[in-house]
Amino acid sequence: MPDLTRWLDRWNRYWFPPASTLNLAGARIVAVAAQLFWFFPAWSHQINLLTKNERFLDPQPIIRVVTLLAPREVIFTPQVWAVVYWGTFVAGLLALVGLFTRTSLFVLALGMWLLVGHAYSYADVHHHEALFVIFLMLLPLAPAGDRLSLDALLRRRRGTEGDRDTSTMAMWPLKLLHVLLSLTYFSTGITKLLSGGLQWMNGYTVATYTFGDAIQRHRPLGIWIAQHHTLCVLLGIGTIAFETFYFLSLFLPRLAPLFFLSGILFHFGLWLSAGQPFYEHMVMNAILLLFLGSRWRRTADAGTVLRRRPAPLAGTPLPT
Amino acid sequence: MTRKQALISAVIVLVIGLHALPVLSYQGHRQTRWPFLAWAMYAASIPPGPITTNQRRIVGVTAAGDSTELTYAVIGVSGPALTKSYLRPLATGDSAVAQSLFSRVNARRHVPLEIIRLEGERATLTDTGVVVERYPTITYHRAAPAPR
């Protein structure tokens, strides 16, 4: 039993440290704004697939659940889908300003699952949205609207604010995002090593993939990179190293911001050279950099936490 | 641990655990248990040799000679479905697929397409630039509609 208690204490210290709710509120605003104004699904794509196909070719699990509740002819019509689409967008706007924050965040996340699940139900599945919409679905379970929100403003005016500047529930979504992002990168890195072996770093692999995408997406930089063999070898080594060892940032909190910054630059480089649209991963790394790993974040936490209730500082390493 | 923390702990374990699902029941190249995915795209290594890439496109032509590219968006399918269902069969001379494509596209057009052309090229990377070789164009004509 003492062992179990010790493990539970470690678990709580990692996932539920007292922390400022400002970080989570900031993460909510950045995530929702990016979703709404940067990579919200295109209506033309949704309606095109909906109207030009009489059936799903490969319905995703969430779409299969929906069609169990009601047949495709009822739910997946332009009229109903327009309600889902614009309802999701309006919920996103409410989540952004923090009005009925938990509910609006839930509707936004559910709507995104439906829209992305629908787009991928016609024999084409990609993965750049998946982790981001999981993160969106975590936010309604946390006090993401306790600060920087109309809800907080209204509470203050009503005099029912209470102490919402700190919470033990404010860090776990960011920490879970960090763990899931580490798992994702490790999965892609280790798959390359298991499937392609060390040959993946021979230069020809990066050159061929980059060249193919660069030609298709009209990226002169990608063609230039593919012409330089040594550079392709170095990029291959860098890719494997970054993806396989990103998880070390979980155990090295002081160095974690460097990993997050590398993540942003990694995806920006992929976009620039090969047109790979991993915008969500750029935003997730930016969220971690701004609200989980930065020095100013820890300083802000220290000020708030120590002022409100003396307690150990957030940012403890993962239990080992 | 509070009740709320216990519930969230269960969520954390569930979300992390669900990511083991596609690994334990590996589906092959493309995983479809969205959003919990293991992904193997770009995982294969390429041996030393020429660096090339192929591009194919389908072009539809009306009787008046107006042409339009039949992209996946115009046809209303996804990119991989375009390749699997149309580009590959058309490249092998499958006229039945061509006729089904005529039917699908013309059903939504005021002016029907009479000809479908499969065009393409292979691009090869060299030290001095990109060398492009065009593939022979394969042409399909719309079959006359059956008399009523």
Description:
The complex is a heterodimer of chains A (320) and B (148). Chain A is mostly helical. In chain A, 69% of the residues lie in helices and 1% in strands. Chain A has 16 helices and 2 strands. The model of chain A is unreliable at 308-320 (pLDDT under 50). With 148 residues, chain B is an alpha+beta fold. Chain B is built from 5 helices and 5 strands; from the N terminus they run ααββαααβββ. In chain B, strands 1, 2, 3, 4 and 5 form a 5-stranded antiparallel beta sheet that branches. In chain B, α4 packs across α5 (95-106). Chain B starts with a helix and ends in a 7-residue tail after the last strand. Chains A and B meet through α1, α3, α7, α8 and α10 of A and α1, β1 and α4 of B.
Shape of chain B: flat
**What letter string, H or E per element, gives the SSE order of chain B?**
HHEEHHHEEE
Question: What's the oligomerization state?
Answer: heterodimer
Radius of gyration of chain A: 22 Å
Low-confidence segments of chain B: none
Structural class of chain B: alpha+beta
What is this structure's SSE topology?
The complex is a heterodimer of chains A (320) and B (148).
Chain A: H1 2-15, E1 19-20, H2 21-37, H3 43-52, H4 61-69, H5 72-75, H6 78-97, H7 101-119, H8 130-138, H9 150-158, E2 166-167, H10 172-196, H11 204-217, H12 220-226, H13 229-245, H14 256-274, H15 279-291, H16 295-308
Antiparallel strand pairs in A: 1-2
Chain B: H1 3-18, H2 21-24, E1 52-62, E2 67-69, H3 72-75, H4 79-91, H5 95-106, E3 113-126, E4 129-134, E5 138-141
Antiparallel strand pairs in B: 1-2, 1-3, 3-4, 3-5
